[in-house]
């Protein structure tokens, strides 16, 4: 069994975080991952305080294990959801799309373990000074909003730069990826795309089928021109978006085109107009299974790889 310092820092049995995917990561998936020994995460996305409060309470009905909330710092409701996690005594807050220092002044004294997602060494150092419990170093292989550095290059540099636990994310789908993350110095992993096909994931059936049918070159990154890079599956929507970018269409027009596209994919299953965000490892996801089976496969596979690694040392 694999146990790392992250388990003690967060209070979980297994060093696996489930990604906080907007319109996807709800109480159903989060509770299943937490019950499996990892850290399930509810995405606050652009939802208001009442929606998040209901999801937190529903998650508590389904699990007595620690779970987290992912807060997107660019949400129009960020101030109110930042207070909800305090009022509801959430165990862990994972942040993305910005710097959380403003809110950490409230969260940390309230006993919340704050784990920001970072795409650079500078941000990792900044949030460590503000009291972060750990950081997620997320490479550009991941689905959704991405940075420039790959997981292979980002993780070891962040590990060298901070003294808190580092969780690797981006391009991790099986035990080999988990083992590689540990060798880079991480003490845990965050996985998103593979959990899309978990039995407990409530994403649309169309979304699950698209993930299962994906291959090695099935994703595309749009939005780099305006510093809002997003990785998703190649679909009529993403191909059109990329074409309009190349043609020089304004950011305002592109914003109108993209508005609501993730919801159309995740909730409505609209293949023509939806943005099916997914990581480059989508081509490695080949079957549906429970969240518990996914967590166990990730760690059992890593244990097997690591136990066999000695054969290369003479």
UniProtKB/TrEMBL annotation:
This is Enoyl-[acyl-carrier-protein] reductase FabK. Transmembrane segments: none annotated. Keywords: Flavoprotein, FMN, Oxidoreductase. It comes from Candidatus Coprovicinus avistercoris. SUPFAM superfamilies: Inosine monophosphate dehydrogenase (IMPDH). One of its GO terms (molecular function) is nitronate monooxygenase activity. Pfam families: NMO (PF03060). The keyword Cell cycle does not apply. It comes from the Bacteria.
């Amino acid at each position: 069994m694999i146990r790392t310092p992250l388990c003690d820092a967060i209070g979980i049995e297994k060093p696996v975080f489930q990604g906080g995917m907007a319109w996807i990561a709800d109480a159903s998936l989060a509770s299943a991952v937490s019950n499996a020994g990892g850290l399930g995460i509810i995405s606050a996305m652009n939802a208001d305080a009442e929606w998040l409060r209901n999801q937190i309470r529903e998650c508590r009905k389904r699990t007595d294990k620690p779970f987290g909330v992912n807060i997107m710092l660019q949400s129009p409701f960020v101030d109110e959801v930042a207070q909800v996690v305090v009022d509801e005594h959430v165990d862990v807050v994972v942040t993305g799309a910005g710097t959380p220092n403003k809110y950490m002044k409230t969260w940390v004294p309230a006993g919340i373990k704050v784990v920001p997602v970072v795409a650079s060494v500078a941000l990792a150092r900044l949030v460590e000074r503000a009291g972060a419990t750990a950081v997620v170093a997320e490479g550009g292989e991941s689905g959704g909003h991405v940075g420039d550095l790959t997981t292979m290059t980002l993780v070891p540099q962040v590990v060298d730069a901070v003294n808190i636990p580092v969780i690797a994310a981006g391009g991790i789908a099986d035990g080999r990826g988990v083992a590689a993350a540990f060798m880079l110095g991480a003490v845990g992993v965050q996985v998103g795309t593979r959990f899309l096909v978990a039995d407990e994931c409530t994403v649309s059936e169309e979304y699950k089928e698209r993930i299962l049918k994906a291959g090695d070159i099935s994703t595309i990154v749009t939005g780099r021109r305006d510093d809002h890079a997003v990785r998703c599956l190649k679909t009529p929507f993403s191909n059109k978006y990329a074409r309009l970018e190349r043609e020089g269409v304004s950011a305002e027009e592109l914003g109108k085109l993209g508005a609501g596209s993730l919801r159309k994919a995740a909730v409505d299953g609209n293949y023509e107009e939806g943005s099916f965000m997914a990581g480059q490892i989508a081509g490695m996801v080949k079957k549906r299974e429970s969240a518990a089976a996914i967590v166990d496969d990730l760690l059992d596979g890593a244990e097997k790889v690591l136990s066999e690694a000695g054969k290369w040392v003479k």
